[in-house]
Task: structure prediction
Amino acid sequence: LPDFSKILDVKEKKEAFFTTLYPIIQAENNHVLQLRKLIKMLKGIPIAKLSEKQRSWLLNVSKNYKLENELIDDNTFDELLKRVDYVPPSLALTQAAIESGWGASRFSKQGNNLFGQWCFSPGCGMVPSSRDSDKGHEVAKFATVNNSVRSYILNLNSHDSYAELRQNRALLREKQASFTGVTLAKSLTEYSEEGSHYVAKVTEFINHNNLQRFTTEFERSLNLVTE
Result:
């Protein structure tokens, strides 16, 4: 990441942060949507006619998205399609800015970790200076910013804590409505120890910085939003 702290004008710094990260978020979301497209294609084939290779691929995707199924059935496809979907850029940009302090945190500078994600095996990341003595978590390190964004999207798409977010997103897709960050932020009470205060902070941040414009731009690129 660039050193955003060198940009003294606050408005200029914010826009630099957003415009640097948006293409990365867009690319990682597009990767997820390509995966979704393949899942939908396989859903159109009768389950009995799926090849062993196709079944194995679906089970691997299911495992990656933390589904504990050993067989492929209709529920597998329904649950996968609920999980394999994009995260609105407005939400991703907001959480990146909040969790990384506009890219100034030690974890973002030394480990490309923009979202405060943890890992739990010794040596997997960086030990927080404020970690309690009885805790064993570390803050994950990523080789690239893309990997950090990819991991963040997978986290929201697979962790039990965000099942409500995925359900709300599925309802928005059913209605062919925009995935607004403000709507999905309501389901993030477990992302931070701040709980409902964190939700309010994220919501205010999105509105104050007019970040829905990035979600609109992304959805237009997918022909999901009409003029």
Notes: The CA atoms of residues 168 and 179 lie 9 Å apart. The first strand starts at residue 118 and ends at 119. Strands lie at 118-119, 125-126, 138-140. The chain has a mean pLDDT of 91.
